[in-house]
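Box 4.2: Ligand-aware structure prediction
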Amino acid sequence: MAVGRVERHLLDQAGRHRAAVLVLVDSESSGEAKAAELAAESERLGAAAILVGGSSATDQIGMGRTVAAIKKRTRLPVVLFPGNVTGVVPQADAILFSSLMNSENPYFITQAQALGAPSVLKFGLETLPTAYLVIGEGTSAWFVGSARGIPHEKPKIAAAYALAAKFLGMRLVYLEAGSGAKKSVTAKMVKTVRAVFDGFIIVGGGIRDARTARALADAGADGLVIGTLLEGTGTAGLRRLSAITKALKGTGSRRV
Ligand code: 1GP
């Protein structure tokens, strides 16, 4: 499948910065107005896109309203980050069409994808073919997705999955430590994956400060997902987001 407008935008943003920042909005914990406000502030502070979803988002109507509200306040692309078929709504621009490759339950590897695909087509969503890899244990993504978490200290296993994803034609790999994770994915793991995977590497889960963000970008991450840091923390969260986008200024290794 051809590279679409949103994927091109992400590649472009990853080339203009050390890494692009993707702000994750949980449509169930913040109301529409708050989510839209956060998206507008994120755009002002240099974020590249807004992700909407998460492993426990099940209210499709609420999610659709949240996406519509965000689209009124920002020009950033809104990308769905579904945890299940309930994460597919028509108002968004694109979807991380993901397979949780290290799940023990085939539902999360191919079945949810088959159930959701007709809606994705009907809604005209751009699909970003993504290998979703859960790293470590104990988070919602790990539990809900029945993942056999790749140990943080086994970067070669993550790289083997990334290589398999590349051979399967996936253009993005998402290394997910899980929302609110105590420990983010290590720079070493990102570097090891980068060595075998030339597609777009997204890293998320537990990224709370500029130093960590910069280290992950320098190790080869193209996109960094920031979620929990911005939840209910008001201006303090935005200050930290600003510090992160500042630390990522400068040209990335990915030039387009
Ligand atoms: C979770 O990777 C995302 O799916 C973001 O994680 O909420 O810890 O920033 P945080």
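In the box above, the bound molecule is SN-glycerol-1-phosphate. The chain is about 40% helix and 20% strand.
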